[in-house]
Design a protein that fits this description.
There is one protein chain. This protein is α/β, with parallel strands linked by helices. It has 41 helices and 24 strands. It has a six-stranded mixed sheet, with helices on both faces. It is elongated and about 130 Å long. The protein starts with 26 loop residues before the first helix and ends with a helix. One of its GO terms (cellular component) is plasma membrane. It is a multi-pass membrane protein. Belongs to the ABC transporter superfamily. ABCC family. Conjugate transporter (TC 3.A.1.208) subfamily. Residues 109-389, 763-1008 form the ABC transmembrane type-1 domain. Keywords: ATP-binding, Glycoprotein, Membrane, Nucleotide-binding, Repeat, Transmembrane, Transmembrane helix, Transport.
């Protein structure tokens, strides 16, 4: 992650230039995969092509792009035509069904037809085998067929095999194309559903779960119809196979048929049970992703509170539940292999026991027939498992699509109507929206039971006139936000209705910042109007801020705006709402946490000025600046308790009394806050970096790490033991079962004795090999996931979290971990088995075939190896490109979900969909490239292999006919045995190549995950800090110096300290000198962006110290580890840390306190009297990120947590910025009661909120401009501070 994105346009990653469009209409091009040759640099396919792919790593612009018929929009339009008229499965089927004449209308029937054709061709293999035996197995010379008939047969066999080699990859590619189209349709439907779904009322559908649904469920559901075709054609395939057996074997077909039926029944039972376990696995995965999402979103707060270990262990616990279900799946897969293997042995024992006439020739045909059936049956458990997984995912998607959407607000656009919003006896509540069925989640415990009793609701009757300025005022949890959300349709309507007359724009209380430039954030998806933009910037107080940024409004913001102050985030959020043209503006406390001057400016220039002729509805906790309101509604417990104009509410005739304190702060700021120095603002440049993407071969370090995880040398040792076992058993079997001159009875006797002895070790070896890889796979997955989580929770906040998009991390922790969980170990064991099965006939070639055939074998291998090297080289890069192209899909979706209230209220749905369509189409196009390349290789390599087989057959038969020369020990039986085995070489070779290619793909998942685990900037939490203040002396000298300190009353001391976010960036705090004494209270004030909140980051070593020294408790900071340092502070941040769980867990995550003590403190602080905690007390359930709590409730919860921790130093960052005056007074009382004996640094925007402080520090541009005791300032008659206090006393006396 080293390359920084272009600040001008972060979407430059997705630019598509000079790319060729894939077209499925050109049947010949698709059938022969000629469009793939462009990637290989074959010049006759496209003009002006460079030698790419085989000569250099592929890049995005080298790949073809998705065509109009396959893109997200086209696929969704077909899907939408049928959706909602019927269930999801039928809708998808109707969307993509097709006729033979119109492939562009759909693919399901087309794919089904070709699958049946391919299956039919494969079932003809025993007939080909029986016919080929005539050229080797004859008793008398006159029975020998003619050479011309042999050549004729060889030609037919070649045509048959080539046809199979071409048609099967074509069929598989079109099945993949069907999957791509369905993914596009489902991606768009999930986005549209999310834009209409009230996520704030959902318990089961968080951002993490929705991304997991997009990443895993869509992929699995898109394969539903292909898996269904496979499963439902099994009976037809079985009937055809039995017909072939009867044709080739007659009555001897009965026993193999019965064995096949038993195998089928076992496979179906396994598939059904596996589906149940897989459903539980997906539920566990959802829970893990929710926990991961919370830990990443709250990364800064987690570090400030030293909760890294708690969140790490929490995620691990969810991961263990997920792995428990995964382990059950692994054991089931091992067990089914064992059962199927021994059922197969028992079947053949019955064949030998009950068949009368059986010999080598009959046995060869019977084995070939049974192999055809076994090929169907051995895959049946896996196919049924895949079908059940697809079915479960389809059910999960269907359940989400069936969820109740936001209330459809009644719209009225009559210009003659005088009202803007009318609430007619509206009763609305936060009743949960989830309707989960048993196909999606198993409700077994009370935690899953959704209790809708005593949910908070509102009951109001209001009419707001056009052009009015109206305010809803109330304390925390009074119902203000519920009214706003009800107007937007996000709450549950119980009775009444809401009519909205006009378009709406909304500014939410919690700022929504997207990754992109400041300009992009403000004009988000609206056309750019330079004059309007400039005006909005001015009235929202952003001119000075933007001018101070090095790149101006082209400055790239982080995903949550972490390179902005809280006030700047608020104003950008407000500017976006104002820039969006509307009739009605809903403003949810947009000026909280702002400087008084800026707040006054916004009220005067924006709300009362620019929006003067608009309907303005303000939701706030204070009556400040509401003198010009047309109507104020006072809210308590969801009801209007008082209403009127400002004078009626306040009970006075003048407005001056209520604005005097604001004027005091305004004057204070004007005198003491200086202009910010632009040279110190380059820290706010573009920080988002391009996602890491390796080039070329998988690095040796990754391979070595995976090798270590898989048991080091135990893995190849197991492979060798398995190969020796299988090879030895086959050689023994060939020796006894392919003897010349034995009778049928002797052959039958040999089969009864030696077949179980030969096959039992093979079955046991396969099962043990599978068990080893699957169990080691679980261990590997656990280690990698734990390493990633450890790395992420310990990652540097400024050097890592400020430079990435969380969607990228979620992508890796979902899809890449899924690949590592089960797919990688499965593919490793598959490759081992396939390579062994492949090497056996090749080994037999050298033992039993004519030496003349060996040069052909060598030429064949050289050609295939050359082709495979090119294939793997390109496959690696395409896989990397495809993996990276998924990140913009999830990043954009995640950001839309975070700003869902604004997006669905203010933006046309089409604009959001089009923006996402670009991301999705790029990813779908890359999938087409990936699938096309894989099936191109299968087609070409298969054709080459089949040509080799035909030539091998001709050579063997020719020498047998013309020269009559067979080397000693090379019998006719051995020759036909080898040729029969070589008939499977084509498929085995392809399967081995595909398996190895898949392993390469999964190694890229390892590569991406190991990058997170090993290569991101870390904080060494348990190692002593290294800062400039301790570099000139060793530890003993530091301790000696500390012991000589005279003033033991100083608890925190900073001397000339300077801090920066990261190396080579400008300093955000400069030359700070602070002495904090025990029990002392210091208030910090300054303009927005002055660096106030950076003080907390500096003291907790989140920022990098470049100069000066810090001492805490008479000890140099270098004597502390980061953990020890941060545990010295109790912290109340501006953005409280609230996570999913109950209230007790949130108050005491580390289980340090007894429950009665927690209960007592929570009761004394009034926490349990709040609406959300009245019923269940400490065991009240808190939703993901505290979405079911008000901001005031969140802040009070955080304060109680800080009180419980009982630290000697407390750092407070705007603790009362988002709460009402009554709650603010309550908080002040709590501070006086519980923090009277602790040292405290309080950060505030208003001087009046910290007047009781022992000293006041004024901060500007990261420097202290005034810092002294209030008494000293008041003793000076010329002190401006004294004049300010006099003004305050005067205003309070009025």
């Amino acid at each position: 992650m080293s390359k920084i994105l272009n600040p001008k346009d972060q979407t430059s990653l997705l630019e598509i230039e000079n790319q060729v469009e894939f077209s499925q209409k050109n049947c010949a091009q698709v059938f022969f995969f000629t469009w793939v040759y462009r990637l290989l640099g074959v010049k006759f396919i496209q003009r002006n092509l460079l030698q790419i792919g085989k000569n250099k790593p592929l890049v995005q612009t080298d790949l073809v792009i998705i065509d109009q018929d396959s893109n997200m929009g086209t696929s969704h339009s077909k899907f939408l035509a049928a959706f909602r008229k019927q269930d999801l499965k039928r809708s998808l089927y109707q969307s993509f069904k097709c006729t033979l004449y119109s492939q562009t209308q759909g693919l399901i029937l087309f794919c089904a037809l070709f699958y049946v054709i391919v299956s039919g061709l494969q079932l003809c293999q025993p007939i080909i085998t029986k016919e080929s035996q005539k050229y080797f197995m004859y008793v008398e010379p006159e029975d020998k067929p003619s050479l011309s008939s042999m050549l004729y047969f060889a030609a037919i066999q070649l045509i048959y095999m080539i046809a199979l080699s071409l048609i099967k990859p074509y069929q598989l590619f079109y099945s993949s194309l069907l999957s791509v189209k369905q993914q596009g349709a489902l991606q768009q439907e999930i986005l549209i559903k999310t834009l209409k779904f009230p996520i704030s009322r959902s318990k089961h559908y968080s951002t993490g779960e929705l991304i997991n649904m997009m990443q895993v469920d869509i992929n699995q559901a898109s394969n539903y119809f292909y898996n269904a075709v496979i499963i439902f054609t099994v009976p037809l395939q079985m009937i055809c196979a039995f017909v072939v057996i009867f044709i080739t074997l007659g009555n001897q077909a009965i026993v193999p048929a019965v064995g096949a039926i038993i195998q089928a029944i076992i496979g179906l039972i396994f598939g059904y049970l596996y589906g149940i376990v897989q459903k539980r696995y997906m539920i566990a995965k959802d829970n893990r992703m929710k926990a991961v999402d919370e830990a990443l979103i709250y990364a800064k707060q987690v570090k400030l509170n030293t909760f890294e270990d708690f969140f790490e262990q929490r995620i691990k616990n969810y991961r263990e539940k997920e792995l428990k279900q995964l382990k059950t799946q692994v054991l089931m897969m091992i067990f089914i292999q064992l059962i199927q293997g021994f059922v197969g042995i028992l079947t053949w024992e019955c064949v030998f026991l009950f068949s009368d006439d059986i010999n080598f020739a009959t046995m060869s045909i019977m084995m070939q027939n049974y192999s055809s059936i076994l090929n169907i049956l051995s895959n049946l458990p896996l196919q049924f498992k895949n079908f059940q997984m697809s079915r479960n995912s389809m059910a999960r998607l269907d359940n989400y699509f069936e969820q109740k959407e936001c209330n459809v607000t009644e719209r009225q656009s009559e210009s003659n109507s005088n009202f803007a919003i009318k609430i007619n006896k509206g009763v609305y509540s936060w009743k949960t929206n989830d309707q989960m069925n048993s196909d999606v989640i198993e409700i077994k415990d009370e935690n899953e039971q959704i209790n809708n009793n005593n949910v908070f609701n509102i009951d109001i009757d209001v009419e707001i006139k056009k052009g009015q300025f109206v305010a809803f005022v109330g304390n925390s949890a009074s119902g203000k936000s519920t009214i706003l959300r009800s107007i937007l349709g996000e709450t549950d309507k119980q009775s009444g209705n809401i009519i909205v007359n006009g378009t709406v724009s909304v500014a939410t209380q919690e700022p929504w910042i997207i990754s992109g430039s400041i300009k992009k954030n403000i004009t988000f998806m609206n056309s750019f109007d330079a004059l309007k933009y400039k005006q909005v910037i001015k009235i929202c107080g952003l001119e000075r801020d933007i001018a101070s940024f090095k790149n101006g409004d082209d400055t790239i913001l982080g995903e949550k705006g972490d390179n902005l102050s809280g006030g700047q985030q608020k104003r950008i959020n407000l500017a976006r709402a104002i820039y969006n043209n509307a009739d009605i503006y809903l403003l949810d406390d947009p000026t909280s946490a702002l400087d008084i001057k800026v707040k006054y400016q916004i009220h005067q220039q924006c709300i009362q000025g620019y929006l003067k002729n608009k309907t303005r509805i303000l939701f706030t906790n204070s009556v400040s600046n509401l003198q010009e309101c047309d109507m104020i509604y006072m809210i308590e417990n969801g009801r209007i308790v008082k209403q009127g104009r400002f004078a009626q509410i306040a009970g006075v005739n003048e407005n001056q009394d209520f604005s005097q304190k604001e004027i005091v702060d305004f004057q204070f700021e004007d005198k003491h806050y200086k202009q910010e120095n632009p040279d110190n603002q380059d820290v706010r440049q573009s920080l988002i970096q391009k996602e890491d993407q390796e080039k070329g071969d998988i690095s040796n370090s990754v391979i070595k790490q995976v090798f270590d995880y898989m048991g080091k040398y135990m893995a190849p040792l197991c492979n060798i033991i398995y190969f020796i076992t299988v090879l030895g058993c086959q050689l023994v079997g060939n020796k006894f079962m392919a003897q010349e001159g034995i009778t049928d009875q002797e052959f039958k006797h040999l089969g009864l004795i030696y077949y179980p002895l030969i096959q039992s070790p093979v079955i046991i070896a396969i099962v043990l090999l599978s068990a080893y890889y699957l169990i080691m796979g679980l261990s590997t997955s656990r280690k990698i996931h734990n390493s990633i989580i450890y790395s992420l929770v310990n990652a540097s906040y400024t050097k890592f979290y400020n430079t990435i998009l969380i969607g990228r991390l979620m992508n890796r922790l979902s899809k890449d971990i899924y690949n590592i969980d089960l797919l990688f170990p499965n593919e490793i064991q598959n490759l081992t088995i396939q390579l062994t099965t492949l090497l056996l006939p090749l080994f037999a070639c050298f033992l039993y075939l004519n030496i003349v055939a060996l040069p052909l074998l060598i030429i064949f291998f050289i050609l295939l190896i050359y082709l495979t090297v090119i294939y793997y080289r390109c496959l690696r890069e395409i896989t990397r490109i495809e993996a990276v192209s998924k990140s913009p899909v999830f990043s954009f979706f995640q950001q839309i979900v975070r700003g869902i209230t604004y997006v669905r209220t203010c933006l046309p749905l089409e604009k959001v969909v089009i923006q996402q369509q670009r991301n999705v189409d790029l990813d779908l196009g890359n999938q087409i490239n990936l699938f096309g390349f894989q099936y191109w290789y299968q087609s070409l390599a298969g054709s080459i292999t089949n040509l080799f087989q035909a030539l091998l057959f001709i050579i063997c038969v020719s020498f047998l006919y013309q020269i009559q020369f067979i080397f000693p020990g090379k019998t006719q039986q051995m020759t036909i045995l080898v040729l029969n085995q070589m008939q499977t070489v084509s498929q085995l070779l392809l399967n081995s190549s595909i398996s190895y290619g898949n392993i390469q793909m999964y190694l890229i998942s390892f590569e991406r995950c190991l990058h997170l685990a090993k290569k991101i900037e870390q904080e060494e939490r348990n190692i002593s800090l290294v800062t400039p203040g301790g570099n000139d002396m060793d530890i003993s000298e530091v301790k000696k110096t500390n012991n000589n300190k005279e003033d033991n009353n100083v608890i925190l001391q900073l001397e000339n300290c300077t801090f920066q976010y990261r190396p080579n960036s400008k300093c955000v705090l400069q030359q700070l000198t602070i002495d904090l004494h025990k029990k002392e209270k210091i208030g910090v004030v300054g303009r927005t962006g002055a660096g106030k909140s950076s003080i907390i980051l500096a003291l907790t070593s989140i920022l990098e110290q470049t100069e000066g020294s810090i001492e805490i408790d008479q000890k140099n900071i270098n004597l502390y580890s980061i953990n020890e340092l941060r545990q010295k502070f109790g912290i109340i941040p501006q953005d409280p840390l609230i996570f999913m769980g109950n209230l007790k867990q949130n108050l005491d995550p580390l289980n340090k306190f007894e429950e009665p003590h927690i209960q007592e403190i929570a009761q004394q602080c009034g926490l349990l009297e709040l609406q959300s905690f009245k019923q269940q007390g400490l065991y009240s359930e808190i939703a993901l990120q505290g979405s079911n709590l008000s901001l005031g409730e969140k802040q009070l919860l955080n304060i109680v947590r800080c009180i419980l921790e009982n630290k000697n130093i407390v750092l407070v960052d705007e603790a009362t910025s988002n709460i009402d005056s009554q709650t603010e007074e309550h908080v002040k009382q709590l501070f006086q009661k519980y923090f009277s004996n602790v040292a405290m640094i309080s950060i505030a925007h208003k001087v009046t909120t910290i007047m009781n402080s022992d000293r006041i520090m004024v901060l500007n541009d990261g420097q202290i401009t005034e810092f002294d005791h209030p008494q000293k300032l008041l003793a000076d008659p010329n002190s401006e501070f004294k004049q300010i206090i006099d003004l305050i006393k005067h205003s309070e006396a009025l």
